[in-house]
Amino acid sequence: MKVKLLRSRRLKRILLLECGKDFTDKLIAFLVMPVGSVxxxxxxxxxKDGNALYNVYTxxxxxxxxxxRTSWTQTVLIDPSSYYTLGASYQHFVPGGTSFVASGAVFxxxxxxxxxxxxxxxxxxxxEAVESSFSDIDYREIEAGEDKVLLLVRAGxxxxxxxxxxxxxxxxxxxx
Length: 176
Prior knowledge:
The chain is built from seven helices and five strands, in the order E-E-H-H-H-H-E-E-H-E-H-H. By secondary structure, it is of the alpha+beta class. A five-stranded antiparallel β-sheet has the order 4-3-2-1-5. Helix 2 packs across helix 3, helix 2 packs across helix 6 (146-158) and helix 3 (52-62) packs antiparallel against helix 4 (71-78). The radius of gyration is 19 Å and the shape is elongated. InterPro entries: DUF674.
């Protein structure tokens, strides 16, 4: 999936990611997934941060099944079956289709992971809000796979700068 990144050299932050339907669908698919499925997919990457919700998940997995009303109860908590995955199977949830967002739509994803329709006015408002000018902005178009979506979801749970955390290296070494 091709995405476009806008970075402020002065702030050393990715300000905006522009993407199409595919990237947006994969990112927002996590909103309809059970939390247990998200914990399972993000697993070890959350463990190193001492994520408390991940601790709940792993402690349940370690408990003996006799601690639960039935062994099925433990299974459904730590490995919930779900149509809502990153792959095409989420199409079963969306009436008549394979997408959450309109075909051909282009979106901006902000540093706080807020999503808006791509427009010139939105980009200009962002530049104004961070007190930047066009001369301060670097632009890159890169290929971003599902691995980047997973990293972005993880960073969104643990960071205030998820775009920069995940895509900051796309611009090479930042000059001070």
